[in-house]
Each structure stands twice: as structure tokens, then as C-alpha cells.
């Protein structure tokens, strides 16, 4: 064999390719996505701060003021002939004057302030007094005056410094934020409770039908969330296990019994009633947790299975030869090693639950103070044209999610979490 | 004593049939064979780690352990990688078997320190396994396996992946342990020199059968 290589290497000057294009590609693709995320958050931050123009505020105030006038007209008719007729028609007149939105030389912004201040005084002082008098004199106009008051206060609500204050002062949204936080936390904990044993079993044992079970466990991941909601609704309310007596109350308080289908929802209600409790899954907070859990748990199971797959079974085996049962080996060896995976699974389940909307909408509806979660609030506000309010609620969700992710990252780091 | 009687093992499509061998009580047995011939499968079957056994029996110190759980067999096991418990300190690793047996804390401390002295790992007791050298990890794994005074010690290539100096040190340590502790040892290795230096009974796994040879 010839000792000379062909072609002779020293005759070529080799220059490795530059990495500039590679890093530019990395930077531009990554940077583009990062830019999109930041732009999206920035848009949500900016929009509510812009607020509405004075012109728009007046336009939005007008229907509420008109409603107040309508209610007062009804009240005035009802009060005709009573000793309150004069006072009610005077209040009606004041409401009418306000609803005309006369500028009287004021600027647009001055007019907004004037109308808001007058409407507030009218609602909180004059109408309140009037309502009290009507009740004292037994004149049946209380309901109309109360509705007129609410309409005036709705008009006042449009004169606000920003949509932030409107959202934070809205008890309905505060309640939805609270329900979101609590339900997400409960569904994440439930998901972990279920995902740890399933993930461990799927990772460590081989058994008949394992592939089939594995596929079923992934179904909630690929299924559209709406379908999960529909499935839950049908399961709890349309699948019948015979018939049962359901007690109803008539308007006069008398009870009557009707035979209806024995559905899971009714069985739960009946069981709750026997304990003196009002249990409700469909259209209740428990249903919100269940709908969130159904989706979130599948992700937690997948994460836990991957976690256990990455932990070598050798340490457990050594522990068993040293005298521990499989259970003891699991608690003392496997689980402490898998705590990062546990945190990841919990976070993922929590985040999935926070964003869940479809199944909750179908299974529980959107009931204020009961089943309305933040994602439902965003949808509601958006659907009534309050895009700024929807943006504030979305921001609130981002802040909440960011804080939870940050906390979990901190706990997942080195010694922040005790090893045993 | 380790006694295999017509042992049949199956691990998926891999099968070993009619294995018989005896390592006398207190003896140092060496099991050799080509890579992939099933040495580790035999060791795991002795430890009871996988449901491999489809026939025959395994007797350890005159009792039939074929159907017993690993925890009930009275064995110490050192796998190839040591498999130290990563979330525990070295002290806790060595004390693991003793805690399971509900020893009082003072006795645990005494036993762990005695073993640590024997294995020259006293200075490591407060550390975690992460960052230990190969030799240190092997010493800790041995101390942990010996803590509950097992009747049988199973070593799966305990000296692999060690530098020459450390290899010699651990060899000396195993030799010393065998002299000082009354334990039957089954040691899997590929190294003839290691076998010559430590072994008393020499077994070779060839073509699905265990044969006893006079020396390696």
C-alpha cells in the first residue's frame, strides 16, 4: 500500500465553516417567538390604560341613564294618587334632566365628571331616601327605585380612571379570580394524587393490556376540551340508572313527588340531602374542579411517567435487598428523587387548569360567584364588548401564572427543597 | 452457602435452563462468562429481583428462598454502578438497612462508624453520593450491603470502571473483608487476575450452563 495519501492533505487549506449563520438562525427564531410573547403581554398591559374617550364614556352612560328614567317613569305611575306622587315625579324629573346630557358650556370631560357626580348623588342620597320613605309609607315603588339606582350607578361606573380599577373593584371578577386559584390548586393536587401511582405503575410494571391503558390515559390530551365537558355533562345528567322519586316544592310550600331518571347528579344530590348538605357537581364549584382535573390529570400522568422512567430502578432493587418492601423503597428512594418531576407535573396541571374554559363552560356554565373562573370572565367581558376589561383579567391570569411558575422554579432549585 | 438446583430462568426471549451450582458456606465464589451470557440474570435471580425463575430452586444457607421476596433473603447486593441512594447522605445510605430493622439510634451510629472505619469512608459520612469517586462509591456500596450482616453477598462487577490503583485497593479490601467477615460471596467479573486473586470457587457460564472450573 502506498504511504502517500491521495490527494495530499497539506495541499488544501481547510477552513471550518463559520457558525454565524447558525447562531443568527437560533437568535432570530428564538428572538421572534420571545418578541411575540412580550408584545402580546405589552398589548394586554397597554390597552386598559388607554381607557375610553370622554365621547365614548358619554355614549356608554346614556343607555344606563335612559334605563333609570324608564324605571322612574314606572315608579311615578305606580305612585300616582299616593302621598309620594310629588316626590317621585320630582325625582323622575331630575333623572330626565341628567339623561339629557346637556353640556351647559362644560367641556366633554367636565360633562362626564358632572354627570357621574350628579348620578352618584341622586342614586346614593336622593333615591335611597325615597326608597326608605316608600317602604315606610307602604307605597309599592321600592323595586323600581332600586332598579333606577342600579342603572345610575352603572352609568357612574363608566367614569373611572382606568379599566384596572373597574376590574379590581368588580366583586364578580374578584370572586372568579378566587375560584380560579382555589379550583386550580385543588385540581393540581388531585392530579398529582392520581398521577403518581399511575405513572409509577406504568413505568415499572409490565402487564397485559398496558399499551391499551397507556392509550386511554392519553385520550384527554388529544381530545378537544369541549368534548370532555360534553362527556361529563352526559355522564352526570343523561345516563340513567333506573328511576327515583324527586321531591319538588310548590309555590305555596307544599311538596310533591315526581319520578325522574336516576342520574349520577341526582344520586349525589340525594346523598347530600340525606346528610343535610346541598351537593352539586354540574353547575357547581365541584364541577369546575372535576372539569379541570379531567384534562390536567392526563398531563400530570404523562409527566410523572417520564419522571419515573428516568429514575433507574436499580436503587429501589438495592433497597429491597436491604430489607425494604416495594412501598418503603418507593417512599424513601423513588419519590424523593422524583420531586422535580412532581413539581413539574403539579405546575403543568395547575397551568392547564387555569387555562381550562371549554369543559367548564359546557359542564358548569358561567354563573357569577359560583362557577365563573377567570377564563370564563375573559370570554364574558369580551363577548359584551368590554375588551379592556377582558385584557385586565387576562393580565391578572398572566401575573398569577407567572408567580406560581416562579415559585415552583425556586422550589425546584438545588437546596430550596429538603431532600428528605 | 449458595446452591442452585436445576434452575430455569426466563427474561423475555432470553432463557437459561437447568443451572446447577454450589458455593460452599463462607466461600468466595467467582462467576465468569462472556458478555450477554446471563451472569447478571443469575445474580438477580439469586437476589429475587425479577420474576425470572420458571423452574428449579435457589437455596441460601440451607433454606429455600426461591419464592421469597428480596427483603426476606438475607443478602447484600452491590450492583455494577453502586446505585447509592442519591437523596441521602453516606451515613443514611449505610444506615438504611438498620433503620428498616428499627435499630436504636446509638447502635446505628456505632455500626455505621465501625463499617466506615473498615471501608475507610469515615470522612465521607456527611456527604451526599454526588461527586464521590468510583472507588469511594464502591466502598460505600459495600458498607451499605454489609450493614445488616447478610449471609450472602452478591457483587456484580464491583471493580469495573476503576483505575488500576483503586482497583488494587478495592481488591485488597474485598480480600480483607472475606477474611474478617463470615459471609458467602458471589462475585461476577470479566477479569481473570481479579478472579485469581480473590476466588476460591470458580464458575463459568457457558452456552446456558454453569460449569465449575478448578481455577481461572
Topology record:
The complex is a heterodimer of chains A (420) and B (216).
Chain A: H1 20-50, H2 54-79, H3 85-99, H4 108-136, H5 142-157, H6 163-168, H7 171-204, H8 210-222, H9 225-237, E1 243-249, E2 255-261, H10 264-274, H11 285-310, H12 314-321, H13 326-337, H14 339-355, H15 358-364, H16 374-383, H17 387-412
Antiparallel strand pairs in A: 1-2
Helix pairs in contact in A: 1-17, 2-3, 2-4, 2-5, 3-4, 4-5, 7-11, 7-14, 7-16, 8-11, 9-15, 11-14, 11-15, 12-13, 14-17, 16-17
Chain B: E1 2-11, E2 14-23, E3 28-33, H1 39-47, E4 53-60, E5 63-64, E6 75-78, H2 90-100, H3 105-119, H4 134-146, E7 152-156, H5 164-180, E8 184-188, H6 192-198, E9 201-206, E10 209-213
Parallel strand pairs in B: 3-8, 3-9, 6-7, 7-8
Antiparallel strand pairs in B: 1-2, 1-4, 4-5, 9-10
Fold and architecture overview:
Chain A is built from 17 helices and two strands. Chain A has a two-stranded antiparallel ribbon with strand order 1-2. The longest helix of chain A is centred in the middle third of the chain and has 34 residues, at 171-204. Chain A has two domains: 54-159, de novo design (two linked rop proteins), CATH 1.20.1440; 171-242 and 268-416, MetI-like fold (Orthogonal Bundle), CATH 1.10.3720. Chain A is mainly α and 420 residues long. Mean pLDDT of chain A is 86; it is low at 415-420. Chain B has 216 residues and is α/β, with parallel strands linked by helices. Chain B has one domain: P-loop containing nucleotide triphosphate hydrolases (Rossmann fold), CATH 3.40.50. In chain B, 33% of the residues lie in helices and 28% in strands. Chain B contains six helices and ten strands; from the N terminus they run E-E-E-H-E-E-E-H-H-H-E-H-E-H-E-E. Chain B has helices spanning 39-47, 90-100, 105-119, 134-146, 164-180, 192-198; strands at 2-11, 14-23, 28-33, 53-60, 63-64, 75-78, 152-156, 184-188, 201-206, 209-213. In chain B, a hairpin with a 2-residue loop joins strand 1 (2-11) and strand 2. The radius of gyration of chain B is 17 Å and the shape is globular. The model of chain B has no long low-confidence stretch (mean pLDDT 88). The chains are: A mainly alpha (420), B alpha/beta (216). Chain A binds chain B through residues 312, 314-315, 317-325, 328, 332-333, 336-337, 419-420, and chain B through 44, 47-49, 69-71, 73, 75-77, 79, 81, 83-88, 92, 96-97, 100-101, 128, 144-145, 147-148, 154.
Amino acid at each position: 500500500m502506498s504511504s502517500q495519501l491521495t490527494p495530499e492533505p497539506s495541499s488544501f487549506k481547510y477552513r471550518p465553516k463559520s457558525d454565524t449563520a447558525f447562531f443568527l438562525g437560533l437568535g432570530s427564531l428564538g428572538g421572534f417567538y420571545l418578541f411575540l410573547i412580550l408584545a402580546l403581554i405589552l398589548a394586554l398591559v397597554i390597552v386598559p390604560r388607554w381607557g375610553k374617550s370622554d365621547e365614548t364614556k358619554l355614549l356608554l352612560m346614556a343607555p344606563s341613564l335612559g334605563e333609570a328614567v324608564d324605571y322612574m317613569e314606572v315608579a311615578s305611575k305606580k305612585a300616582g294618587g299616593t302621598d309620594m306622587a310629588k316626590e317621585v315625579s320630582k325625582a323622575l324629573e331630575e333623572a330626565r334632566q341628567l339623561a339629557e346630557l346637556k353640556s351647559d358650556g362644560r367641556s366633554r370631560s367636565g360633562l362626564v365628571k358632572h354627570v357621574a357626580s350628579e348620578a352618584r348623588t341622586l342614586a346614593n342620597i336622593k333615591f335611597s331616601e325615597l326608597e326608605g320613605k316608600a317602604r315606610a309609607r307602604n307605597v309599592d315603588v321600592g323595586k323600581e327605585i332600586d332598579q333606577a339606582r342600579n342603572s345610575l350607578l352603572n352609568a357612574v361606573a363608566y367614569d373611572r380612571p382606568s379599566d384596572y380599577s373597574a376590574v379590581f373593584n368588580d366583586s364578580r371578577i374578584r370572586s372568579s379570580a378566587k375560584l380560579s386559584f382555589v379550583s386550580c390548586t385543588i385540581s393540581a393536587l388531585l392530579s398529582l394524587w392520581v398521577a403518581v401511582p399511575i405513572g409509577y405503575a406504568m413505568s415499572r410494571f409490565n402487564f397485559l393490556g398496558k399499551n391499551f391503558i397507556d392509550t386511554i390515559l392519553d385520550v384527554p390530551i388529544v381530545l378537544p376540551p369541549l368534548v370532555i365537558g360534553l362527556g361529563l355533562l352526559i355522564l352526570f345528567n343523561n345516563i340513567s340508572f333506573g328511576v327515583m322519586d324527586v321531591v319538588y316544592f310548590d309555590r305555596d310550600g307544599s311538596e310533591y313527588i315526581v319520578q325522574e331518571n336516576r342520574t349520577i347528579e341526582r344520586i349525589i344530590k340525594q346523598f347530600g340531602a340525606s346528610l343535610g348538605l346541598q351537593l352539586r357537581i354540574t353547575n357547581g364549584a365541584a364541577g369546575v374542579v372535576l372539569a379541570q382535573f379531567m384534562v390536567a390529570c392526563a398531563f400530570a400522568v404523562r409527566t410523572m411517567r417520564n419522571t419515573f422512567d428516568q429514575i433507574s430502578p436499580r436503587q429501589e432493587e438495592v433497597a429491597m435487598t436491604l430489607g425494604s418492601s416495594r412501598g418503603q423503597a418507593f417512599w424513601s428512594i423513588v419519590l424523593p428523587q422524583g420531586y422535580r418531576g412532581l413539581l413539574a407535573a403539579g405546575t403543568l396541571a395547575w397551568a392547564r387548569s387555569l387555562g381550562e374554559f371549554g369543559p367548564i363552560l359546557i359542564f358548569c356554565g358561567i354563573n357569577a360567584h359560583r362557577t365563573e373562573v377567570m377564563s370564563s370572565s375573559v370570554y364574558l367581558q369580551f363577548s359584551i364588548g368590554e375588551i379592556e376589561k377582558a385584557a385586565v383579567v387576562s393580565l391578572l391570569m398572566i401575573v398569577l401564572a407567572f408567580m406560581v411558575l416562579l415559585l415552583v422554579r425556586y422550589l425546584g432549585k438545588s437546596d430550596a427543597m429538603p431532600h428528605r | 452457602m449458595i446452591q442452585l438446583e436445576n434452575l430455569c430462568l426466563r427474561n423475555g426471549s432470553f432463557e437459561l435452563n437447568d443451572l446447577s451450582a454450589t458455593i460452599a458456606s463462607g466461600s468466595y465464589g467467582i462467576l465468569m462468562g462472556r458478555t450477554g451470557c446471563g451472569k447478571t440474570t443469575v445474580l438477580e435471580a439469586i437476589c429475587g429481583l425479577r420474576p425470572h425463575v420458571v423452574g428449579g430452586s435457589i437455596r441460601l444457607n440451607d433454606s429455600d428462598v426461591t419464592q421469597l421476596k428480596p427483603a426476606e433473603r438475607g443478602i447484600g447486593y452491590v450492583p455494577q454502578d453502586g446505585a447509592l441512594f442519591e437523596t441521602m447522605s453516606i451515613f443514611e445510605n449505610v444506615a438504611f438497612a438498620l433503620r428498616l430493622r428499627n435499630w436504636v439510634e446509638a447502635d446505628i451510629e456505632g455500626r455505621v462508624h465501625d463499617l466506615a472505619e473498615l471501608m475507610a469512608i469515615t470522612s465521607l459520612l456527611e456527604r451526599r453520593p454526588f461527586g464521590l469517586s468510583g472507588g469511594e462509591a464502591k466502598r460505600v456500596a459495600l458498607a451499605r450491603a454489609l450493614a445488616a450482616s447478610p449471609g450472602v453477598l452478591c457483587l456484580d462487577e464491583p471493580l469495573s470502571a476503576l483505575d488500576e490503583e483503586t482497583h488494587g485497593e478495592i481488591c485488597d479490601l474485598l480480600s480483607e473483608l472475606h477474611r474478617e467477615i463470615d459471609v458467602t460471596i458471589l462475585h461476577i467479573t470479566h477479569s481473570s487476575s481479579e478472579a485469581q486473586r480473590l476466588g476460591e470457587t470458580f464458575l463459568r457460564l457457558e452456552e446456558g450452563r454453569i460449569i465449575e472450573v478448578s481455577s481461572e
